[in-house]
Amino acid sequence: MIEIKECMLQLVKQNLKHDKIVGTICDFIDFKEKEGFRFGDLVLFHYELFGGKGNEINQIAAGMEMLILAIDIFDDLVDLDNQDLPWMKVETSTATHIGLALLTISQLAIDESFFDNKVKLEARKMFNKHIVRCISGQQWDAENEIYNESDYLSVTKEKSGSLISSACLLGTIFTNYQQPQIVKEYAEHFGIAVQIANDIKDIQRENSKNDFLHKKKTLPVLYLLNNAAAEFEELKRYYKGDIQKEQIQSKQSEIVALIKKSGAIEYAKVIMQLEINKSMKIINTMDITEDSKERIQSMLFR
After folding, report:
1. Cα–Cα distance for residue pair 280/288, rounded to 1 Å
2. Other beta carbons less than 10 A from residue 200's beta carbon
3. Cβ distance 58 to 4 under 8 Å?
4. Distance between CA atoms of residues 155 and 162, nearest Å
5. Which Pfam families does its entry note (predicted)?
6. Which of 82, 161, 176, 227 shows its CA 20 to 30 Å from the CA of 51?
């Protein structure tokens, strides 16, 4: 993880000459380090798993984390649901410029590496396709045009599955492994499972970051909105705009307790486990050693 952070800082200082922005980005990177560089770790893990050698992959992993930081910034600027984050405490114009710089530097991390040019071209093409998929999923999510489980899974596959898939594929492409499509498939199912886990946690928050306060249509929320029981009527009316946020917020503890008893959490956990099972099933079909399969599962499902 130290190597990823040092590479991120180096990439920023090499490519940006605005000292104030460089300092601000370094602060953002310090903040991200506290939650861990999970996506960069996936790059490193897959590279080593499939026989990659050398430290050049650290720069690729750093580029992946630069993308994640950029996506986080843009997502939070759209959602406006967490003002405690460091990029929400600077001017919107500054945060936007930083997000754009990070997005560009994530590409330069690949371009300026010492890998073979043909492989770098393949990696960059994959990387850009997944970025576009993520943006499409983010916009779909922002529009909140999600009405059922199928809609949710489609959006989540694009929004979250594409990013985890991108990290796993970046580590794979720079090796000689010949079946990247399989990696893409198991990573996408894992990405959906991760998002569902986050949604389960978020809907049980008793603070301003709870998803239902912001009318997000996550899997547990959809369970409630599609439930005919009378106790969920108030929440439905809130999502329709018939009730003010302050009224719901005043009853947040009561609503969270209701959600915990409703079956919504259990329902979401079942769907999450199905996605994990799909991912594990794909991993078990791979033409690799049993030890390698176990290592992938341990890395993903820890």
Report:
1. 14
2. 20
3. yes
4. 10
5. polyprenyl_synt
6. 161
83-90, long-range: CB within 8 Å, 24+ apart, which pairs?
Answer: 85/31, 86/27, 86/28, 86/31, 87/28, 90/24
Structure tokens at 271: 């769907």
Backbone angles phi, psi at 207, to 5 degrees: -150, -170
Radius of gyration of the chain (CA): 20
Q: What would the mean pLDDT of 228-243 be, rounded to a whole number?
A: 89
Predicted pLDDT at 2 = 67
Tokens representing 45 are 């893990």
Could you tell me which residues come within 8 angstroms of residue 261 by beta carbon, excluding any fewer than 6 positions away? none
Pairwise CA distance, residues 34 & 32, whole Å = 5
Q: Which amino acid is at 50?
A: F
Cα angle for residues 62, 68, 70 (degrees, 5° grid): 105
pLDDT beyond 60 at 1:
no
- Whether residue 285 contacts residue 198, with contact meaning beta carbons closer than 8 Å, is answered with no
What are the DSSP calls for 126-166, one per residue? HHHHHHHHHHHHHHHHHHT---SHHHHHHHHIIIIIHHHHH
**In sequence order, what DSSP letters do the residues of 177-211 get, joined into one string?**
-S-HHHHHHHHHHHHHHHHHHHHHHHTT--STT-G
| Mean pLDDT of the 1-23 span | 92
C-alpha to C-alpha distance for 26 and 131, rounded to whole angstroms? 23
Task: Return phi, psi of residue 146, to 5°.
Answer: -125, 120
Residue 206: band (very low, low, confident or very high) from pLDDT cuts 50, 70, 90: confident
pLDDT at 118: 96
- Owner of token pair 């990070």: 102
Q: Which of 296, 200, 294 is nearest to 256 (CA)?
A: 200
The amino acid at residue 5 is: K
Tokens of 5: 């952070």
Could you give the CA distance from residue 58 to residue 10 in angstroms, rounded to a whole number? 11
- Measuring CA to CA, which residue among 39, 35, 11 is closest to residue 171? 39
